[in-house]
Amino acid sequence: MNKLQEPDLDFIRHVKKAGGADLKKCYQCATCSVVCELSPEHKPFPRKEMIWASWGQKDRLIKDPDVWLCHQCNDCTAHCPRGARPGDVLAAVRSYVFNENSFPRFMGRALATPRALPILFLVPILVIGAIMLGFADFEAVDMSMGAAVDYNNFIRHGWIEGLFIAGNVLIFSFAAIGLKRFWKGLKETFPDHQGPGFISSAILATKEIITHENFNKCVTNKPRAYAHFLVLFGFLGSMATAGLALLWTVALGHHSPIDLPNLIKVLGTVSGLMLLVGLGIIFVRRFGDRDRIGANGYSDWLFLYILAVVGFTGLILQFLRMGGLAAAAYITYFIHLVFVFFLLWYAPYSKFAHMFYRTLAMIYARGINRKPKSIQQAA
Ligand code: SF4
Ligand code: SF4
Fold this sequence. Notes:
The protein is mainly alpha-helical.
């Protein structure tokens, strides 16, 4: 006898609030699954996800890899005869998955609640403020116009690097707990493993991420693929620059990253510009054409703003230093570190985590030969 499935009303409320307000308009015509370029032939999405979401079948959706194969291009939303906005519903479900899998769980809730924002900011302000007050060489910090700027005198690089390395180890250990739960769930949804092994699937998924091969199949919201490409590689380039600066100072014993080789500085500048241009496209489109771009919940906006501040402050630091705007440079450096802390320490609980969840789902999909119908038909 089939077990009676109770609807999870909290889950429905979350989906509606996070962008899926028109979810209940769906009458299951399946137009969305037909027009979606990324949907496979067997058990296509997003029609089935629409009925599950409408019935509050949270447990099914949080284990569903298909939710993560969607790039919110909104081709389905543009063609839906009922205005049920399936692309937005899937995005809302994705945001729920971070909360559900987060460890500790209260952090997931905090990142999803605007009321928690002051406390979330207070933590990095206090931690970085304590490092500044405890170890700064204030006699060497001259804030007058035209003075030489050395960020290391203001906030010691060694402490900041130690803080971020320790934080990353801790936070990514917590993230691994959530990702392990997620992977287990994926295996329950599609247990048949007929495709390549994990390593081969990971290579295929990585290639797909680098080329944005599937993302580029989208039609309605195509510029999103370009913007996403710029943001992703701008961010990775910025992280690589930070890692090289760390090597430069800690491993190679240089006093400060100010005298980094020009090649690394160019990498940092180009990456920062890519990040900001990509974010600029996303902001302009989201403010300008909400119907085509789709709804965005609190988590989306929060992540975009944090990333924009990190990218902008990171980029202008070197110009403020070179321009001798000492006071502005030191203040901007403090703000930059607070936002970097926010971005990295809270990564497993924010929209940032979608990078890991999506990658895992893509690897799993490759492993079970779950591919877009256009690729299946061509094979
Ligand atoms: S979301 Fe729209 S297109 Fe998809 S099944 Fe429902 S009514 Fe049809
Ligand atoms: S938003 Fe795009 S990728 Fe996602 S289900 Fe709709 S058509 Fe498919």
